[in-house]
Amino acid sequence: MASTPIPQARVIVLAGPSGSGKTSLSTRTGIRAVSLDHFYRDDTEEAMPRFPTGLIDWDDPASWNHDEARKALIELCRSGSTQIPIYDIPTNRRTAIQTLRLDEKEKVFIAEGIFAATLVEELREAGVLADALCIARSPLRNMWYRFLRDLSEGRKALHVLVLRGIHLARKEPALVKGWIQQGCRPVGSLSEAESALLQASAQNTLK
To answer: What are the extents of the domains in the chain?
Structure first.
């Protein structure tokens, strides 16, 4: 039986509701982050999940390419390099492919996104998981910051942002519960998450 290869780096999975501050944490910690939003599917693909209104449900895992994300993260951990699509959210499609390379001294990086928790068990089995966290703070707080972000970036039409915000706030407690069941440790604030990320980074750098 072949042994599992020793990875060049390991990944910290960071799940959390849209607008919960996942992306800003990498800046605060200085740890490189891979946004899993780039693995969304184009809106022209068949069988995209939709609401009864006909709008695509971008918060349904079926709108996202799980297998492609998993393969890219494992390859990045084992070889230090992989190809990542560049996804343009306002137009709902991939626009390019980029090659991502880790520096030799980078022993850990963050993979963040609303579907990140679905990867935890597979990354653990591959021997590349450093830690798995999920941000579990007030749904109303997340809804407000999500709305401000999406409005400033012009991600979707105003009515879509409002309807999506209400929909997500209602679903959020169940989502957090699901992420915990998938193997993530809950953190109640960005400061707690920052401390947990730095601790996981330090532990894996020393290995």
So the answer is: 10-205
